[in-house]
Recover the amino acids of this structure.
């Protein structure tokens, strides 16, 4: 067992220890005892510490894999195993499925491992499976000038890429510091303190006031997410070394976009996780009956809502859409300074900022016909994005056969959770037109 897996198991064990006193108190409709509180606090402190260590270990593992190149072990695999995994070809998988040919070689081995992972989750693989290890490891394929006719990936030296990377830096949530949890098995309990203990001063022999601690028991559970891309048979028949990279990137983009959409604005219905903007207990700044244009006070007040919660705020930042970005870049701080509310593409009022079309716009309010936008400020380390198992790929070569096209369908299991909703503040009535 490698170091990263050990950290994950220690985190899961710590979460289980935290749930024991919490569930005991919850089952008896009472507050936790002093001993239970001590045990709970210690376990949750370990969970938070391990979450940081896991992120660090994941980053170091990626860096080590890049430095190792063709000769060193990758993700706890020896050199021969790493060499075999680098030959895995998604294009070869799609071609085999499209032509009805059986899988062989490393593609068949990885499919079998993905099937075993799915069974551990109580799920089935309906097409060809890609196991978790191929979603996070790095390989050295698809950079040489030629590629075999069967689609097998060729070796390279300089470019290091994952098979399909669901947490690439292009993800705005990753860039803001969201916590990605991979390799999950079963439901993951995430208890949190919604009302803490309150201490008071008393006289020498006066009775201390009892604190009314309240806990919220949330959990992450696997939700099936599906997406697909359409490619022509002519595209799949090409042997250009960039074809597999394009195919992988297409799938990555589709999965990452959907994950970010639900994490930001998911409605919590029909198996869709609840997004930050739809949590009933996040903090909200209301600008007016018909909304209002953003100004410096808007930013300061939004930040103050979160800062007033006395949270750690480890990864604070803004998430906005393109309409809000354009408005902020055109809005002066004041008449004299010559500065605008947003003077760079990476910073807003002293905090990191990311821009995505997944933040809603074209909202309406009151009697105004103007379209309004949302914006979020918060501690993004409190946003958890979990992944169970790998990918299930199915190729449909029948539906669009007359057009010479195939549909590549993928399914995977994810969930998102705002571990501490009050670490986020949103405004939903920004006048950005």
């Amino acid at each position: 067992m490698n170091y990263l897996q050990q950290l994950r198991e220690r985190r899961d064990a710590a979460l289980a220890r935290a749930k024991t006193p919490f569930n005991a108190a919850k089952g008896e409709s009472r507050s936790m005892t002093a001993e239970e509180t001590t045990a709970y606090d210690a376990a949750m402190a370990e969970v938070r510490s391990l979450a940081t260590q896991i992120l660090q270990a994941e980053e170091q593992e990626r860096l080590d894999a890049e430095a190792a190149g063709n000769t060193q072990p990758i993700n706890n695999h020896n050199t021969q195993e790493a060499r075999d995994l680098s030959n895995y070809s998604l294009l070869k998988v799609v071609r085999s499925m499209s032509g009805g040919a059986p899988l062989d070689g490393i593609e068949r081995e990885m499919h079998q491992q993905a099937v075993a992972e799915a069974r551990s989750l109580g799920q089935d693989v309906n097409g060809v499976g890609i196991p978790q290890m191929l979603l996070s490891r790095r390989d050295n394929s698809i950079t040489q000038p030629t590629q075999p006719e069967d689609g097998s990936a060729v070796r390279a030296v300089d470019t290091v890429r994952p098979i399909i990377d669901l947490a690439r830096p292009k993800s705005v949530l990753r860039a803001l510091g969201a916590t990605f949890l991979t390799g999950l098995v079963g439901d993951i309990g995430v208890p949190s303190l919604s009302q803490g203990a309150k201490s008071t001063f008393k006289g020498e022999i006066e009775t201390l006031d009892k604190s009314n601690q309240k806990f919220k028991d949330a959990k992450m559970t696997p939700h099936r997410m599906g997406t697909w891309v359409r490619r022509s048979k002519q595209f799949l028949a090409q042997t250009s070394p960039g074809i597999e990279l394009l195919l992988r990137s297409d799938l990555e983009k589709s999965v990452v976009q959907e994950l970010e959409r639900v994490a930001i604005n998911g409605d919590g219905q029909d198996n869709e996780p609840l997004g930050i903007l739809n949590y009933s207990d996040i903090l909200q700044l209301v600008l007016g009956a018909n909304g209002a244009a953003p100004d410096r006070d808007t930013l300061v007040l939004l930040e103050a809502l979160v800062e007033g919660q006395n949270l750690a705020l480890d990864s604070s930042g803004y998430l906005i859409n393109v309409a809000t970005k354009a408005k902020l870049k055109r809005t002066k701080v004041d008449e004299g300074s010559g500065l605008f509310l947003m003077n760079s593409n990476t910073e807003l009022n002293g905090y990191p900022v990311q821009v995505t079309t997944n933040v809603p716009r074209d909202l309406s309010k009151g009697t105004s016909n103007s379209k309004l936008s949302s914006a979020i400020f918060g501690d993004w380390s409190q946003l958890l994005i979990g992944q169970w198992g790998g990918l299930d790929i199915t190729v449909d070569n029948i539906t669009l056969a007359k057009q010479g096209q195939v549909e590549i369908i993928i399914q995977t299991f994810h969930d998102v959770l705002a571990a501490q909703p009050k670490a986020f503040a949103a405004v939903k009535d920004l006048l950005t037109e």
Notes: The chain has a mean pLDDT of 79.
